[in-house]
Amino acid sequence: MEANTTSSQVPEKIEIFKTLNSKPRLQALLYLFIYRKLNLTELSKFLGKTKNTTVYHMKLMANQGLILESDQIIEGSIKPLKNYELSADFYKTVFMDFGDLANLPESQIIGYSRNIFRWNTLLFETVRELMREISLFSETSEKSIKSSQDALQFHTNPSNHIPRDLIPLSENGYKEYMKLYQDFKEKTLALIEKEELKENIARPYLAFNMVLPIKTLVELRHTKGKKGKKS
């Protein structure tokens, strides 16, 4: 019975990934991760889209339970203003336990995996555009430093700090790292929930956590190189 329930989820999950395979929608989710709640005017401005286009994208995600829509009554306005925020069950709605895939038919395993990879590709492209903005921030900051005093003021300002660590991990190190990260993640999410009890606050900082499978990537690159060589 459990396997059947899991199997029935797959077409729904695939449709969700197809919906998310859109740069404007990924950008909208990114802004909602940062600000928690945005109204239609604010979100349209961030996306650089008309309100009608923004409503279209958000309606698609709302229909699949990814985001929540609410109306804000504006004094003197005939129509209420739309507000958007992420669904509390966003992660559960999008992802399923990879351990459950073994119970599925082969076609569903392949279909689900391919849609995840397509979404990951677009997600990385969207993040890469954000990284270009960080590069521009660095270039602008470099030009603003004219003296040692300017440099000291810049580096002692907490708002300018971008933590960057490259940590090579062994197999055992990776397993221990994931345990530590899971603990850190649970504490951070608990902090966010505690903050939300007080007020709906903006979150103008975005923390990335990513472990790159360097070995796999290098082996893939060498494999491609061998295929491309002529004997």
Topology:
Blueprint: H1 2-20, H2 23-35, E1 37-39, H3 40-47, H4 51-63, E2 67-72, E3 81-86, H5 90-94, H6 106-144, H7 148-155, H8 171-198, H9 214-228
Antiparallel strand pairs: 1-3, 2-3
Helix pairs in contact: 1-6, 3-4
Your description of this structure?
With 231 residues, the protein is mainly α. The protein has two domains: 1-127, Orthogonal Bundle (Arc Repressor Mutant, subunit A); 159-231, no CATH class. It is 64% helix and 6% strand. It has a three-stranded antiparallel β-sheet with strand order 1-3-2. α1 runs parallel beside α6 and α3 (40-47) crosses α4 (51-63). The longest helix is centred in the middle third of the chain and has 39 residues, at 106-144.
- Taken as a percent bin, the fraction of beta residues is 5-15%
- The appropriate CATH architecture of the largest domain is Orthogonal Bundle
> What is the topology, as strand order, of the major beta sheet?
1-3-2
Q: How many distinct folded domains?
A: 2
The top-level CATH class of the largest domain is Mainly Alpha
Distance between the termini: 54 Å
Poorly predicted sequence stretches spanning 5 or more consecutive residues: 1-5
Radius of gyration: 22 Å
CATH topology (level 3) name of the largest domain = Arc Repressor Mutant, subunit A
The geometry reads as globular
Identify the quaternary structure here.
single chain
* DSSP strand tally: 3
Mean pLDDT, nearest integer?
Answer: 83
Secondary structure: helix percent: 55-70%
